[in-house]
Amino acid sequence: MNFFKLITSIVVCELAGTLGSIFTMSQITTWYATLNKPTLNPPAWIFAPVWTTLYFLMGVSAYLIWNKGLDRKDVKIALIVFGIQLALNVLWSIFFFGIHNPALAFLDIVLLWISILSTIFIFYKISPTAAYLLVPYIIWVSFASYLNYSIWVLN
Description:
- It is a single chain.
- This protein is an all-alpha fold.
- It has helices spanning about 5-30, 45-65, 75-100, 100-125, 130, 135-155.
- The protein has a single domain, classed as TspO/MBR protein (Ferritin, Up-down Bundle).
- Helix 1 (about 5-30) packs antiparallel against helix 2 (about 45-65), helix 3 runs antiparallel to helix 4 and helix 4 (about 100-125) packs antiparallel against helix 6.
- It is elongated, with a radius of gyration of 16 Å.
């Protein structure tokens, strides 16, 4: 086990979450609180622990791929696709909370969902465990897509 790669992978993912939270935190009790939300909207406090856990799992997943060696073309491609989904993840927070645009955020989350699914398929060919670690992520993003769409329509 390469602890440097493991810690780096987790920290990069958690930093992406932290970057997204910069746009989110100040809006929870202000702008977001004023929105009409769907019936299945969970309480605001649930999002931080869920996302922290998901970013941790993403980091471990990326580590399992990176640890296979950057000399492999499939590993490089897999990590690029992973990076794209991570960027789309951060962009969602900017679009939704930063510029208050649920429509643009919904477009982003659709692209995010597709990129997560692509990442899962690509990772599976290299490390099935790495792919399985991303399943909770795509499930949560599926639910978040419903929330995003509902908020867009209701407001």
